[in-house]
Design goal:
The protein has 3 domains: about 270 residues, TIM Barrel, CATH 3.20.20; about 140 residues, 2,3-Dihydroxybiphenyl 1,2-Dioxygenase, domain 1; about 190 residues, 2,3-Dihydroxybiphenyl 1,2-Dioxygenase, domain 1 (Roll), CATH 3.10.180.10. The chain has about 625 residues and is of the alpha/beta class. Strands 14-15-16-13-9-12-11-10-17 form a 9-stranded mixed β-sheet. The protein contains 22 helices and 26 strands.
Length: about 625
Amino acid sequence: MKTSIATVSLSGDLREKLEAIAAAGFDAVEIFENDFLSFDGGPRDVGAMIRDLDMSCCTFQPFRDFEGLPEPQRRRAFDRAERKFDVMQELGTDLLLVCSNVSADSLGGIDRAAADLRELGGRAQGRGLRIAFEALAWGRHISDHRDAWEVVRRADHPAVGLVLDTFHTLARDLPVDSIRAIPKERIFLVQVADAPRIDMDLLQWSRHFRCFPGQGDLPLASFMEALGATGYDGILSLEVFNDQFRGGSTRRIALDGQRSLIYLNDQLKSPSRIGRRPADLPPRAECLGVEFIEFAVDEQGASELADLLSALGFVRTGLHRSKAVTRYSQGGINIVVNSDKEGFAHAYGVVHGTSVCALGLRVSDAQQAMARAEALLAQSFRQAVGPGEIELPAIRGVGGSLIYFIEPKSDLGRVWEIEFEPVEGTERSIAGAGLSEIDHTSQTMQYEEMLSWLLFYTSILRLEKTPQVDVADPGGLVHSQVVQSPEGSVRIALNGPDHGRSMTSRFLAAFFGAGVQHVAFETTDIFATVAHVRSNGLKLLTMPGNYYDDLDARLGLDRTLLNRLRESDVLYDRDETGEYLQAYTESFAEGLFFEIVERRGYRGFGAVNASIRIAAQTRSARQNDLV
């Protein structure tokens, strides 16, 4: 089965779209009429471009408001179709997508629609062309693929076939088992799109929120299993309308489309598998935890970060045998501070300044994790390995950073022993502030990138997405969504601002791109930890008194607990799963910061407190600018 994508799915002009689609490995392309109309050239030019890129044009679309019209509109509709046929023949495609009528002038009746399609099919056949009929979910008289199939069946013409579209079927919760009875030769095209579950008008939902498989909530696998039962082996094409895609990178979105089909393929049983890629991939990598977080710094940044980590209770536990790289540890947390003047971290730091340049994830099988990542089009990373060093498998992550795969039971798990000299005399029990694990990392990116990285993480790793939440920022709105392992050993928050004045937007500008903005450390006693770090001279973010007054009014907390929260500048939330307490350092290095959290069974991330934290950080930044 060959893969395709509709040009409407991508940003850019038609040439940019076609080049990106070819680079992503698609076999074919659907030319959306508006893309053609805005192109400065004729249909022969477009057809030549497609062929030069070693692709075919599988469809010209859409042809709207055709079937069931009264005269004289009916005659004009056939005249319009003939003009489209002229374009198609020069373009080099034989298929016209005809979507069900939404016009108030259209007349109902399956037989009337079938007669119109039969006549149109005859005209198309006379020119070596075909037509494919699609039921729009908001069609005036035909909005169900079962009715569209009945129209095609009654038209009974070899040049008239059916378009099946996952969105139009699944958005209306139509049964998919009916697809199994459709003869495969009568299905001329299958279009695929996912979407988040939103209770809104179907047309608006379709026009703004469709996305690639794996980025939404629709049960695509059940649709594809039903399609597989027909034996269909024709074109499978992505057709997506999405505001985020329209503002995103053309090549990145095209690559996401191909990745989404590989991921969808991996979820299907063998009879329903699609595309030309290997059917069997290693399973999604099981995440066991975060082995380390690596910071890229210069010499001054290394000194400043060392002071901050020391105040948080971290101690030096290792020095790299050949590089200016230091390991800091506390509990099960490892922080790597890399100020070496060569290698990836140095290059990353030149661009971004003091920054998180890499995450080391513990996985059950590093080789399988790499194999799956590469099959899903992730970019692998390799650099020179010196004597006595281990080559850690890695892929590129957000903002060009790295994700290393560490397998604890292999030599990869001995990286500290092999590459680092231990620091003698370290007494972690004395210096520690009670921090035990990395609770989560937060990655800030352009809003248009969020769906890309959501698909990246959930297709390669065994991470599940949580519902998206919107956080108020004094300068705008920030969209946030978390991907996490089932047991919570790895949690990554994806944050995207929708306005250039928000704090997260300012971080993106100062950072010169997407990256980790904050790291959260877990403790079992946040009040003891706060007292300890304050005794070390660390200043935490000050929270407004109004917040605690409201907390008392909303939740009626025990007076002792409320006073402790206020005195410690600790934020609080609770739900049916438990309680969540959180405190923050002030920002450093153009917007980075650390968080301290205590979970008492709580599974969320304190979203209700995010706007309070952001406002406090904004206030703190303004005050510091005045000093």
